[in-house]
Amino acid sequence: MKLNINIPILRFKFFVGLVSCMLLLQSTLRAQDSTAVAQKTVAPAKVKPVKNTFQSIWIIDNQTVLVPAKGTFEMDIMHRFGTINNGYQDFWGFFAPSNIRLGAGYAPIDKLYLGIGITKLNLLWDASAKYSFFTQTPEKYPVSLTYYGNMAFDTRSDPDGSLFKYSSQRVSFFNQLIIARKFSDKFSLQIAPSISHQNSTPGYYTKNDSTGTATYQEMKFDHFAIAVSGRYKITNVTALTINYDQPLTKHPDNNPNPNLSFGVEFTTSNHSFQLFFTNFSMLSPQANNLYNKNTPFAYTDAQGNRVQGGQFLIGFNITRLWNFK
After folding, report:
1. Are 269 and 64 contacting, i.e. CB atoms less than 8 angstroms apart?
2. pTM listed for this prediction
3. What share of the chain is helix, strand, coil (3-state, %, to 5)?
4. Total domains present in the chain
C-alpha cells in the first residue's frame, strides 16, 4: 500500500496552527493585562485623616483638637499684659502687672500628649493630658474628637493658714471635650464644653437692700462652660483667630464673665506665634472660667451697678515643636 503525503500542505497547516496559537496566547495575555489594569484603576484609594485642622495646640486661651505626633516635644510661653482701660497711664496695659505661663509637653505614644507648666499668678503648677479619640476622615468621621484635662496646684506661701486650711484646698481640676471640623483648607471651627472643679470655694457676703442684712454665700464647686473657637487662613503662614467662652453655671454671687478673644496667628512647620486681644488673664482654664472679672460687654450687676465693658488685654502665645521620632 502506497502512502502519499503532501509535505508542503502539512507545513502550511502547521504554520497556520502555530500562528493561531501565538495570536490566541497574545490575546489572552492582553486580556489579563487589561483586567489587571482595570482592577488597579477600580481599586479605591486609601482614605487618609484630615491634616492641620489647627496649627498649634493653643488657640488663644483654649487648647485645640490637635495632638502632636508621637515623639514630639513642645515648649510654650504665654503672656498676658494688663487691661487697656487705663490708656496711657500704664501704656494700655503694657506697663501694668502681667501674667506669664511657661509650659512643656511630650507625646510618648500616638494620640497621647502629656504636659506640665507653671503660672506666675498664685505660682500655679499644672499637669495635663490630652488624648485624640479620632480624627476627621472623609466618609468615616465628620469631625475630630479630643479630650483635654488638667490638675492644678496653688503653691503660694501661706504661713498663717489664712488661705488654705488643708492642702487639698489648693487643688483644682479641668475637663474638656473638644469637637472640631476642618470645613475647607482655610476655615476650621471647634466647640468645647468643659467642667471646672474647685476643691475650695470662695465665699462672699451679699447685702439685702430691703432688710439691710448680709448673707454669706459660696460659689459652687463645679462650673460648666462652653468655648467656640475658629481659625481662618489668609495666607499659608498667617491666619485670623477668634474665640468665645460662655459660662453656663449660675452661682449665688460673683458670677464670672464671658470671654471674647480675637487675633492673628503666624506659623511655620515648627513655630506658632499668636497675638490677640482677650478678656481672660489667668492662664489656667479652670481659673479663667471660674473667676474672670473682665468683660467684653457692659452690663448691670445684681446690685444695680453699671459695669463697664471693653475690658480687654493684649496677650501672646509662642510655641516651639521638636520631633524626636
Report:
1. no
2. 0.83
3. 20, 45, 35
4. 1
Largest CA distance in the chain: 145
Q: What is the DSSP string of 43-84?
A: SPPPP-----S-SSSEETTEE-S--PPTTEEEEEEEEEEEEG
How many whole angstroms separate alpha carbon 158 and alpha carbon 154?
A: 10
Contact 191, 179 (CB under 8 A): yes
Query: Where in the sequence is the domain holding 299, given as residue range(s)?
Result: 60-197+224-323
Q: Is residue 190 part of a domain?
A: yes
CATH number at residue 228: 2.40.160.40
User: pLDDT tens digit string along 127-181?
Assistant: 999 999 999 999 999 999 999 999 999 999 998 888 888 899 999 999 999 999 9
Alpha-carbon distance of 55 to 320, in angstroms, equals 11
Instruction: Convert 49-63 to b/e letters by CB count within 10 Å (16 or more is b).
Output: ebeebbbbbbbbbbb
Which of 277-289 are b and which e, b meaning 16 or more Cβ less than 10 Å from the residue's Cβ?
bbbbbbbbbbbbb
Residue (of 240, 207, 243, 307) closest to 63 by Cα position? 243
Let me know if residue 102 belongs to a domain.
yes
Instruction: Tell me whether residue 205 is exposed, middle or buried, using C-beta atoms within 10 angstroms of its C-beta: 0 to 12, 13 to 18, 19 or more.
Output: exposed
What residues are paired with 273 via a beta bridge? Answer: 266, 318
- Report the alpha-carbon distance of residue 237 to residue 267 in Å, rounded: 5
The grid cell for 203 is: 465665699
Q: Is residue 86 in some structural domain?
A: yes
